[in-house]
């Protein structure tokens, strides 16, 4: 039986003692701020307190995700969500008010504190006390979803297997096996679909009410303000259209080529996986970690050192097991200045790429650690640049897992195929959410129909779904983003444009590209997204011209691999 360690984070605060937590927050609220120096000292104390609390919150969440079957871990997590988070929301607003109304705030250097000023002003503007119980209920539903899908199994060869295991079988080069796995996954989804649909109904209603309470017409508009997005709703729609014009045709051409390679008359849903690879790149988690360690060292010694640091300190949980929440993520443990990578994928090409992706986030986190004041706003448009970028910087190192030249080319082609898809799939998810939250009174049937319509317009454009429309329309229930991280989709596509530019640079001058990556990942998050991209040697540009140029580059590299 697997021993799940819980000593990877610092318990600097006892969250079970809510009164003590509240006393710490009250002390900050009542502190005297009579000079710029006093304000800066207060900000440091506030940061230390916040990082300590949030590290324990993160640790408890990770503990629960690692073992959703544990009632004790679930209760600790739910205590955090129902008792501690409301305190943080309440006192967070009071602290924002104290900061924004302090006469010395305007004297703080914008180069060091500018982004924080903007974020805190927005938080104060949007705060409504009546939204606290709604936000608590929202997190309860997210926890229930993770518990439900974490325990999901699927039938395989007459046995109940963990859901990720059966998903991994869809990569098989044997089309009969792929189809059997795909249909087993659909049956597993079907078993929980009513519950997840009911959760989504409730989440949409809750989020709509949160937005209305804050004075917005819909949750979409509320989120754009909450995220302080540096682009508009109209910019998003323009991006959708540019990808449809320039990337979908390339996606269709590649699909026809793949269909020819597979020798199939119809390109079906079970043909869209990395099924041109002969087998999974590893069998055990140790093999995965050994190979990725070598890949990272071959790319840059700092990358390899940080991976070893995490591996030795129990900051990686990568094995698939029953009761573990699905998917993968990297969490920043700000108090101890560490990062934790969680992944739940059975041996597969995607599991390998997912680990490289999350290590990009981890490296970004470590490069953000500073000795001086280090408040950060981890905007996803920036964070995802370094995760996608790490995948592509390691593209030429896949030989650690694919030893012969032909297998290596196929693996590289699959990764580039994934990169091109990351310009498409996230926009499909983004457009789906625009519709969800600007039409909050929709029915479950209308939601499924809209998902299928958008899927066929984007990533599923070349796929034949004949007779499988019902199954395809419910695929959204697999995405934790729709449930737990609303409107966290388009950032993947924006950052993939930057990552492909980074690959283009790397192919010309590897040393310069890696230096740019590390410089950009180190840039103070108080800078604009465009400035951070510029420091990375790429452009934050998702115009029609930029999309066309990057799509042509990606397609040309894929075609060059044969």
From TrEMBL:
Binds 1 zinc ion. Residues 169-509 form the Peptidase M3A/M3B catalytic domain. The keyword Coiled coil does not apply. Its EC number is 3.4.-.-. It is an enzyme of class 3 (hydrolase). Keywords: Hydrolase, Metal-binding, Metalloprotease, Protease, Zinc. One of its GO terms (molecular function) is hydrolase activity. Pfam families: Peptidase_M3. InterPro entries: Pept_M3A_M3B, Pept_M3A_M3B_dom, Pept_M3B_oligopep-rel. Its cofactor is Zn(2+). Belongs to the peptidase M3 family. PANTHER family: PROTEASE M3 THIMET OLIGOPEPTIDASE-RELATED, PUTATIVE-RELATED. This is M3 family oligoendopeptidase. It comes from Alicyclobacillus fastidiosus.
């Amino acid at each position: 039986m697997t021993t799940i360690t819980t000593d990877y984070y610092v318990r600097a605060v006892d969250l079970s003692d809510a009164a003590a937590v509240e006393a710490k927050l009250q002390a900050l609220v009542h502190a005297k701020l009579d000079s710029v120096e006093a304000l800066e000292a207060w900000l440091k104390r506030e940061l230390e307190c916040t990082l300590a609390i949030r590290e324990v919150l993160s640790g408890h969440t990770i503990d629960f995700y690692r073992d959703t079957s544990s009632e004790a871990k679930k209760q600790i997590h739910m205590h955090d969500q129902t008792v501690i988070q409301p305190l943080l929301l309440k006192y967070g607003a009071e602290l924002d008010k104290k900061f924004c109304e302090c006469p010395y705030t305007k004297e703080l250097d914008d180069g060091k504190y500018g982004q924080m000023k903007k974020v805190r002003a927005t938080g104060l503007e949007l705060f409504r006390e009546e939204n606290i119980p709604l936000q608590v209920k929202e997190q309860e539903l997210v926890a229930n979803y993770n518990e439900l899908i974490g325990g999901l199994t699927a039938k395989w060869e007459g046995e109940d297997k963990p859901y990720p295991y059966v998903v991994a079988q869809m990569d098989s080069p044997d089309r009969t096996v792929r189809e059997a796995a795909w249909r087993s996954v659909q049956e597993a989804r079907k078993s929980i679909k009513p519950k997840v649909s009911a959760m989504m109904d409730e989440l949409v209603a809750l989020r709509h009410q949160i937005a209305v309470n804050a004075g917005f017409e819909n949750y979409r508009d509320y989120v754009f303000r909450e995220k302080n997005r540096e682009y508009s709703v109209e910019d998003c729609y323009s991006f959708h259209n540019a990808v449809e014009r320039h990337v979908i045709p390339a996606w269709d051409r590649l699909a026809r080529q793949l269909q020819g390679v597979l020798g199939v008359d119809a390109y079906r849903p079970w043909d869209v996986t990395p099924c041109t690879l002969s087998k999974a790149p590893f069998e055990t988690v140790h093999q995965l970690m050994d190979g990725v360690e070598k890949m990272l060292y071959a790319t840059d010694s700092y990358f390899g050192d940080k991976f070893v640091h995490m591996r030795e300190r129990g900051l990686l949980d990568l094995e698939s097991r029953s009761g573990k929440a699905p998917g993968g993520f990297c969490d920043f443990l700000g108090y101890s200045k560490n990062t934790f990578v969680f992944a739940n994928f059975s041996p597969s090409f995607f599991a390998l790429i997912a680990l490289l992706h999350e290590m990009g986030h981890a490296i970004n986190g470590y490069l953000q650690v500073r000795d001086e004041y280090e408040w950060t706003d981890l905007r996803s448009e920036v964070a995802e640049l370094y995760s996608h970028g790490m995948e592509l910087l390691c593209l030429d190192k896949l030989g650690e897992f694919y030893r012969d030249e032909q297998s290596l080319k196929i693996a590289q082609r699959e990764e580039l195929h994934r990169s091109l898809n990351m310009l498409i799939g996230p926009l499909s998810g983004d457009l789906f959410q625009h519709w969800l939250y600007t039409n909050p009174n929709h029915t479950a049937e209308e939601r499924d129909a809209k998902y299928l319509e958008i899927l066929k317009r984007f990533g599923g454009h070349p796929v034949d779904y004949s007779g499988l429309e019902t199954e395809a329309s419910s695929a959204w229930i697999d995405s934790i983003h729709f449930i737990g991280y609303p409107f966290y989709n388009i950032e993947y596509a924006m950052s993939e444009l930057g990552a492909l530019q980074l690959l283009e640079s790397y192919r010309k001058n590897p040393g310069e590209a890696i230096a740019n990556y590390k410089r950009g990942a180190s840039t103070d998050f108080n800078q604009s997204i465009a400035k951070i991209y510029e420091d990375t040697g790429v452009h934050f540009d998702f115009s029609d011209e930029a999309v066309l140029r990057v799509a042509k580059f990606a397609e040309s590299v894929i075609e060059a691999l044969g």
